[in-house]
Amino acid sequence: MAKKGSEAEKAMLDERRKAEEEVERKVKELAASKAFIGSMFNAIADPIQLVDKDLNYVSVNKATEELLGYREDELIGCRHSKLLVPRERHLAGKMAAEVLATGKTFKYERTWLTKDGAEIPVVLHCAPLRDAKKGIIGAIAVARDMRETKSLISELEQRKAFIENLFRAIADAVIVSDREGTIVTVNRAATELLGYRKDELVGQNTRVLLVPEQRHLGGTGFREAIAKGDSVQYERRHQTKDGVGIPVLLHTSPLRDSQGEIIGSISVIRDIREIKDFITRLARSEERYRALFEHAPDPIIVTDANGTVLLWNERAEEHSGYKAEEVIGRSSEIFVPPDLRQEAKWLAHEVKQKGYVKSYETERMIKGGARVPQELTMASLEDDLGNFIGFTTIARDISDRKKLERERAEVQEKLLRAESLAAIGQLASGVAHELRQPLSVINNSVYFLKMKLGDADEKVTKHLGILEKEVDISEKIISDLLDFAKPKKLALEQVGLNFIIEQALSRAQLPQKVAVVAELKGLPPLMADPSQLERAFLNVILNAAQAMPDGGKLVISTGARVKW
User: What is the distance between the alpha carbons of residues 133 and 130, in angstroms, rounded to a whole number?
Assistant: First the structure.
């Protein structure tokens, strides 16, 4: 009996030991499981909070501490409304009541308040927390920080608003259509251009916008853009709601979704009525300017930057003798005299630097090599980008002007000479006045001596006669000088020309080496001023004698060549 009792007691001890070992094993497993759950709980990137049925915090993970700045021990036991901004704390009870009452999961948008007072938008996913018997013992909330998402949404909304504003503000008409050409949307410029409301266009095929004679072309443009996957440009004529045809230029590009797939097309439509009208006016203007160029009164030559002739008008042909086909393509140096080549290079440099040179006088050669004085006005030619590409030259023949200038210079020289002579005449008048007084005294003295001396010897009488004669000659010279200074009115009378010549010869004091031969034949009387005619012949005789310093024979002959 004792042995059986000992065995039973041993069996009980074994059972207890096994039970204790099982409990210990389960405790270890539970501890390990708790540690695993705790590690996983803290490893989750989103904030997680556990609350009991009274809505007090039971536990929070590391992400909650990092996001809000609280330690876990600062939150345990606090109401879950502690984390909400004051304006939303009244919603905390409603949120918990829904979860605890229904046992369902709910999603809420709330704003948390950090320990430092910063606001953080979050999305909360709240679910009931159950025990092993499925009973609700609290709630678990998983939060998602929405700051970055909110920022992205705000940025997207701003971009969307910008694109919509840009779409509305584009001055050109814009039409968006799907792959079948059905209009999806249009901007305000499109409705203003075509006269339709937006709702009248959306859903229509783009071909209805074309004039009837071009509707068979409908869709070709955007189909080409879709097929190429790139932009295309083409001209069409759109028809407004009122039936008016408008020439337009379309720039159509494929429209792609976020994956890059082509889902339609977008067409920018530009009204080119003004451009067409401008082109027409430009063509007419070009015709007018070409007519002006061809029929300009002066030669006009257009050359490139190297001086090669590009254009040559009719007046240039007439002026130079060269036909257009003879000079176009050749260097303009063929018109420049060799000695003026350096000047021509300097002139081209000036035009490049200043943009033009106005009224520059030089010479150029015409066909045959003759030099012609010309006045050049040159201007630089530029392309649309402002790059220098050549010269325009207007060449004016100034031969007539130069001739007139020479004639004018000659006239001016004569006028200056006349003015000089007038000045000399004024001077001579003063000198004559001063000389006549002493001559008068001499003449009176001679008269007095002749009266006093009476029968003086022949030599004295001769010298007194010479003095008297020289005074008369001086008086005549002074009279001639005064006549030159201020011509007086002619005293015309009938005179004998031969007698006047004899008087001049008697007054002329000629060198002994000059022999005078007078062959004076009978002449009819003339109407003349005898004193001035005598002075004229006296000047001629004296000039002739002066022309023979070594002596010679002076022949004076008269005669009539016609019958009187």
Answer: 8
